[in-house]
Design a protein that fits this description.
Arc Repressor Mutant, subunit A; 2 domains
């Protein structure tokens, strides 16, 4: 669950079932009542019709939490944390980073670092499209050591330099939900 649309769909399904929730956040729902197996099945069916899935597998839940921390960090905060991303993620999820990294790589087929880079580049594309910041300001905002570092990483991911992307007539962006979910 990585968007406001997803959160609204979950709230709607819970309300249909007469379930009261304390929290509906990215990848997490806290329901006040004990949920029956019939309600669980109805919730799962309703979520599937919205393109969402109810996760029971602890590893899948952990992967979802890792992805949500990264999406929140990259797309929904004004400034990326100045600490190592590994420390930030480990602290947020209260797990050893090596464990998180191993589970993530095993399940997703890419590393957490690669997932972060994919999201940072998509955020850079968004900032380029806004045309409010120059490349130096974007590099600083996204915690790149220099514009050259940003440009090199941007080109590795997109095949274009940031300037080439800026000059494209049809600037392609991808929904956050699709990032890092490419088939292996």
């Amino acid at each position: 669950m990585v968007s406001q649309r997803c959160k609204m769909a979950v709230k709607e399904e819970l309300l249909k079932l007469g379930l009261h929730f304390v929290v509906v956040d990215l990848g997490e729902v806290d329901i006040m009542e004990n949920i029956t197996s019939e309600q669980r099945l109805a919730l799962k069916t309703g979520l599937l019709s919205s393109g969402l899935d109810l996760m029971d597998d602890k590893r899948a839940v952990l992967i979802e939490k890792i992805q949500n921390v990264i999406v929140q960090m990259v797309h929904y905060t004004d400034e990326l944390p100045k600490v190592n991303y590994s420390d930030f993620i480990s602290e947020k999820l209260n797990h050893d980073y090596t464990y998180l990294s191993n589970v993530f790589s095993e399940v997703k087929g890419i590393t957490i670092q690669q997932f972060i880079i994919i999201h940072k580049i998509e955020r850079v594309k968004e900032l380029i499209l806004y045309e409010e910041l120059n490349f130096t300001e974007i590099a600083d905002k996204m915690n790149y050591s220099s514009v050259a570092h940003l440009s090199n990483q941007f080109k590795k991911v997109t095949g274009l330099s940031p300037s080439q992307f800026k000059n494209l007539k049809d600037k392609q962006r991808r929904p956050i939900e699709e990032l890092g979910n490419e088939p292996n």
